[in-house]
């Protein structure tokens, strides 16, 4: 029986969530499996990978072949390194304690890199939020300026309309006075 370490898809449409399982190579993708080794959630940044490292190493030592994606995940979590170190211990290249120290040093370095990435992502998110806020403030200032300009134009139009009305009233009054004076002069002339 050929055993594969592969991903088994779960989750809903558009939001995948995977189980990392050891399964018979002939089994369906989401079918029967021998052992669940962990989970993989690619929906977050950075992706969340929970893995039973010792169980995965045991399956690798027993001849299980990881798929390409599973191999990348196992490498990311250090399972392949631990499997390699276990081979060195078996051959007598170094002791179990030395292998564990090397693995722990690698885990600490990896944790530092992941923390740095999370910090950079948080900083980038904060910067983007601040930039969006500045852009929104700028747009609001432009809108306020446009409204103030429109109000000034309306006031100017009202003043012009009032002046036009007053001028029209004066012309009407003058015309009325002239017409009245002409009538009186015509009456006097008769």
Structural write-up:
The protein is α+β, with helices and mostly antiparallel strands. The chain has a domain at 3-93: S16 Ribosomal Protein, Chain: A, CATH 3.30.1320. The protein contains four helices and five strands; from the N terminus they run E-E-E-E-H-E-H-H-H. Strands 4-3-2-1-5 form a five-stranded mixed beta sheet. Strand 1 (3-12) and strand 2 form a beta hairpin. Helix 1 (53-61) crosses helix 3 and helix 3 packs antiparallel against helix 4 (96-189). The protein starts with a strand and ends with a helix.
C-alpha Rg, in Å? 42 Å
Q: Return the structural class.
A: alpha+beta
Q: What value does the average pLDDT take?
A: 87
For the report, how would you describe the main beta sheet?
A: 5 strands, mixed
Low-confidence stretches: none
The total of beta strands comes to 5
The name of the CATH topology of one domain is S16 Ribosomal Protein, Chain: A
CATH classification class of one domain: Alpha Beta
Helix content: 55-70%
How widely separated are the two ends?
136 Å
Strand percent estimate: 15-25%
For the largest beta sheet, what order do the strands appear in spatially?
Answer: 4-3-2-1-5
The shape, in one word, is: rod-shaped
Architecture of one domain in CATH?
A: 2-Layer Sandwich
The CATH homologous superfamily name of one domain equals Ribosomal protein S16
Please report the number of helical segments. Answer: 4
Order of helices and strands: EEEEHEHHH
